[in-house]
Queue: 2 jobs
Job 1
Amino acid sequence: MKKKGGDGRRLSGLNRREFLKASAGALGVGAALIGGGIGFPAIARAAKGKVKNPIKIACQGVASGPLGNNGDFMNKGALLAVEEINGKGGILGSKIEFNFRDDESKVDVAIKNARYFVDTWDADFLIGIDSSGVALALGQIMPDLNRILIVTHGSTNKYNEEIVFKKGIKQCFRSSVPLYQDACAGALVAKDFPAKQWAAILPDYEYGHTSWKLFKQTLKTLRPDVEFVADSFAKSGTVDFSSHIAKVMGANPEAIFSVEWGGELVTLIKQCQLFEVYKKVKYWMAGMGGAMDVLQGLGREYPEGLWGTTRYWFLYPDNPKNKAFVDAYHKRWNNYPSHNSESAYTAVHMIKQAVEKAQTLEIKELIAAMEGMQIDRPAGPCYIRKEDHQAVYSVPWGQIKHDPKYPFPILTNLKVFPAEKYYLHPPFTQAG
Amino acid sequence: MGERLLYLAVVGLSEGMALWLVAAGLSLTFGVLRVVNFAHGSLYMLGAYLAFHFIRLFGGNYWIGFALGPIALAVVGYVMERFFFRRIYRLDDSFQLLLTFAFVLIFDDLVKFIWGPVHQSVPTPPILSGAIMVVGRPFPAFGLFIIVVGTAAGFALWYLIERTGWGALVQATATDREMASVVGVNVPRLYTGVFMFGAWLAGLGGVLAVPMRSLAPGMGESIIIEAFVVVVIGGLGSLRGAFIGAVLLGMFHAFGVTYLPVFELALAYVTMAIVLIIRPWGMFGVRE
C-alpha cells in the first residue's frame, strides 16, 4: 500500500481519504493478527472462515389445519440435517441457524414470512413451501428478495418450467420431484391397467388442474383407447366429498385418478369407502397416496390394493445411505420420515454442498454451484438440472399393503421408471 | 335421470343435515340472546375433538363419544355464557364480536395444544359402516343416520319450542326480554340454558361429523361461514329458517357440483345476496 507523504510538508497535504485508507489498512492487519489468536467478532474472523457465521436458513411449510402434518415433517427433516451438519463443524466452519414458520398454505402469509426472514431475520437461504400456488407466488418475488429459494414440496412444474426456465429467475430451485411423478409416471403405470374409462377427483387449484391435464395427455398417447368420463374439482378446505363422489360415480368409471393430499386425501378415501367406490372401481391412483401423513392418518382404514406414490418412499432405495437416514430420523423424532422430511433434509445438504463448492455466499456463485450439482441423497442418486433447476431422481409407485412390521400400511409391488423417461424436458414444448 | 336426481337429493340432504345442527344452535343463540356467536364453529370443532377423545378413551366405542361429546359441550357452553358472555350483554355489540373472536383463536390453539396440529380420523361405528342401496346406488349408512338424527333433532326442537313450558318461556324472552323479566322469568338463567343448549347442538353436529370426515384445528372456520349463510337466508332466530336454509345449501352443493361446477360455490352466496336485498330479515325471520 502506497503511503503518501515522506517528509513533513507532504504529510500535511495527505488528503483525508488516503489517510483513512492507510489507517484502516493498519487496523485491519492488526485486528487479523489479534483475531487469529483470540476470539474476536466476525469481522476479524471473516478472513479465516470465508463465509459469515452463522449461516441462516429459513423454512416455511403448512403447519396447521388438515394439511398440517406436512410442515411438521418438513421442519423435522431440515432440523435433522442442521443438527448433523453443525455436529460435524458446520459449513466451512460456520454454524447453521435454522428458523421455521407456518405459511398456512396462504400466499400472503408466505410472502410476509419471506420478507420477515430476509429483511429482519437476515436469512441467507429460504427453503420449504408445500402449496403449488404459494411456490409460484413466492418464486415471482425472488429477484426482489435475492436469496436462493429451494422448494421442497409444492409440485407445480410451472415453478421450474416458467419461473426458472422461461423467466430466468435463477434464484429458484426445487429439491423434490414435481407433478411429473403423479401425471407422467402415473400414466406409465396406468397404461398397463385393463381399465379404459377414467375419472378424477382433484383439488381445485393449479396442482389439481395441471396434474389431470398432463395425466390425460400422457396416458392418451400411450393408450389411445382410454376415455375420460368425468372429473370433479373440490375447493381447498373441502371436508365433504359426497357431492364429488356422487358426480364421478354417476359416470361409472373403471379407474379414478386423484391428487388430493394430506388430511383431505384421508377424508376422500374414507368417504369413497363409505360410498363403496372401491367395490366398483378396481384401479385407484393417488399422487400423494404414499405420503407418510396419509398412511398414518388412515392406518388400518386404508384399503389394500390402492395405488399411491409420493416424493420419497422411505423403503426405496433399499441401500445403506437411505437406511441410515431413516434410522437417524426415527431415533431423533420417533417416527418415520415423510417425503417432506427427506426433501428438506436434502435441501439443507444442497446448501452445504453449494457453499463448500462456491466458497462464498454470493448468489451468482451459489447458483452456478447448484446448477448441475450431483447429490447422493436418501432418495437415491440425483442431479439438479441446469436449465430449470429441477431435481431429477426416481420415486416408485406402489400398491397399499398392511404390514405387521409397521404401524401404518406400506407400498408394495413397486414400479420405478428412470426419471429421464417420465420427466418433461426443456424447452418444454411437447406438453403442458 | 329421475333416479340420478333422487340420489343427488339424498346426498344434498345428508350434507344439509350436518350443517343444520350447527346452524340451529347459532340461530337459537341469536334469536334469544341476541348474541352473534362467531365461536359457534369452534364449539362444533370442540364437539368433534372431545367425542374423538372419549372414543379413544373408551376403546374405540363411537356411541360413548356420541353421548358424552354434546354433554361436554353443554358444560363448555355453561362456562362461556355464565362467566364471559353475561358480563358483556349490556355493552356495545362490538365487544361481543371481540369476545367471540377471541374464543375462536383460543379454542384453535387449545385444540392444537392438546391434540396436536395434525389431522385425526375415527372409523365409523361397525353397525353403520356399510352402504345402503338408494335407487340402485350405494349410499353410506352413516349418511342416512345423519339424515335421521338431523330430522329427529328438527322435530324435537320444534316440539320443545312450540309445545313445552320452557319453550314458551324462551319464545317470550326472545320477543320481549324486559317484559319476561317483569312477569317473573329468571332471564339470566334462561339465557344460560339456551346457550348451553346451542352448544349441545353444535357438539352433536361435531360428533356426527367425526366418522365421515377428518378432524383438524381450524375445522370450525369453514363451517361457521356456511352456518352464517344458512342463518342469513333462513332468518336469524328462526329454527324453521335454519332447517330450510341448511337443506337448501346442501342441495346447492350436491346439484351444483354435478351440473354447474364452475358456479357451485356462488350459488349459496348469490342466494344470500338476493335475500339480503329483497328480504333482509331472512325467509322466515322476524322483521325487527
Note: Chain A is about 45% helix and 15% strand.
Job 2
Amino acid sequence: MEYKLTHRAYFASLKKGKLLGLKCSDCGTVTCPPKMTCQECTGTNLEIVELKGTGVIKTFTAAYVTSLGRENEAPYTIVLVELDEGPWIMGNLVDIDPRKVTIDIIGRKVDAGFKTFAGDTYSNGDAVRPLFSFVD
Amino acid sequence: MRRVCVVGGGHTKFCFNTPKSGIELFSEAATEAINLSNLKPKDIQALYMGNVFGDIEEGQSTIQIYAANDIGCFNIPASRFEGACASATIAIRDAAAWVGGGYFDIVLAGGTERCTAMGTPLATRFFAACSDGRYEFPSGITFPSVFAMLTHLYSKTYNIPLPKLKETLAGVSVQSHFYGARNPLAQFQKEITKEQVLGGAFVSTPLQLLDCCPFTDGAAAVVICSEEVAKKLTPKPIYIAGFGQASSGKMSAQSKYLPRLYAREYSVKQAYSMAKIEPKDVDICELHDCFSTASLIAAESLGFAEFGKASELWDKGETKHTGKRPINMSGGLKSKGHPIGATGASQVHDVCKQLRGELVEQGRQVDGAKVGLIDTLGGDGVIVSLVLKNFAD
C-alpha cells in the first residue's frame, strides 16, 4: 500500500506555503506530519487536507549547541505548536531574538511559514520545516 | 518462562577519549564477566551486544562478531542490538527472554560505545539522528533540545515556576555527582554545587551544561543464565524477575501525554506485573537521567511520585542511599557517564552490586536492598524496564 502523502510531497507543498495534513475518514482526526496510518485510530482511509497553519505554542527551547554543520544557525528557537486542527508539529520561531525568548511565549498564537533545510551529508537531501511567527 | 539470573558482570572505567577500540573495551568487560561467572568462553552460547554508532565512531559495523571472536566465543550467534541509549538494556531483556524460553542456557549480554571519538558536533548530529530525521531534525532538534522543551512543558503543565524547578534540577545533578564521586568506574569523580550548575553555559534553554550527561566511552557486560546453571556458578545469583519494553513515535506525535513519555508507563507496567511487585517494593532504582529533567519525568512514570510531584523526592533527600527512594546510586548517566550502547548493562551491573551488598566500602550501598529497577530510554521513545531481585520468589 502506497503512502497517501510522502515526505517529499509534503515538503513540496510546504515550499509553496501550503501545510498539508491527513484527515481520517473513519474518526475525523487530522494527522500531521503525514504517516501511513491515522495517529488516533490507525485507519488508512485518509484524505489530504490543507491546514490553516495557525496554532498555539505549547513548548520551546533556544538551542545553543548544534549538530555538525549547523553551527551558524545558533542560537535558534525550536517550538512545538498545537495546530488549530489538533496535531502538534515541530518548527522554528522567528520574530523574537532566541537570546531573549522566555517561557512567556507558551500559549501565544502563531502562523506557519516555511524554511528549507538544505540538508547535510547524512540527511538524504533537503527538508522543509514550518517557520512560525506571532499573530497576536 | 523458567527463572533467569545474572551471574558475573564486567565494567570498564567510563571516560573521555579512550585509547582503546570499541571491541577492546567490550572484550575487557566481557572477559571480566565470564571470569567472575566461573565460565570459559566456550560456555557462552550467544552474544547479545548493544552498540549504536561503531560505524561512525571508528568505522566498525558488525562489531558483535569481531567482539565474539576476540573474547574466544567462536561460532556462536552474535547479534547487535540498536535502540539508541537503551541498546544494551534491549540486549539484556532479549537474552533473558531467550534463556527464559529455554532456547539458550548461557548468554553474554552487554554493550560498548566510544561516543567521544565523534567529537561534540558530530556526536550531537548523530544523537539527534535518534529523533525523527524527516520531520523534526530539520528544525535543528538535538537531544538536549528534546529535554529542554520537556522542561518548559513540565513547568507549565504542573504550574511549577521555572526558577523553582531549576533549583530542584540543579539538586538532581548535585546528587548525581555526589555518588559519581564515590563510584571508581565513573567518568566524573568530583562533587559539584548548585551554584556551578546554575552558572553553567546554556546548551538548550533552560538546560545548562551540568544539567546534561556527558559523551562517554566505555563498555559493560553481564552473563545471563538459567537458574539451574546459575546456582552451580555462584552463591549469589541475581534474578531477572520481570522485564518490559515499549516504544513510541516522534516527539510531536506524543502530544497527548507529554511531558510524560507514555512508553515508559507501558513498559514498566509489564515489568512490575511479571515480577509481581509494585513501585513501593523497589529498594534501588537506576533510571535514565540523560538530563536533569529526565529524572523527574522518569520517577513519576515509574510510580515513585504523583505526576508533577517528583521534585519533592530530590528536594527532601529521599533519593539518597539513606532515603526512602534511592535513585541512581551509581552517579547515573550524568556523573557515571553515558556510553550509549553500554549504558543499560552498566545500570544492571551496578544494581547487581547493590543487591549483593558489595558497595558498602564505596559509601553508596542501600542497606538491605533486595529489589532493583532498571529504566533505560532510547531516542524519543524506546523504553526498557528490568526488575532484579536477590531472591527467588
Note: Chain A touches chain B at residues 7, 33, 35, 39, 58-71, 73, 76, 78, 80, 82, 87-92, 101, 103, 106, 117, 120, 122-123, 127-129 (CB under 8 Å).
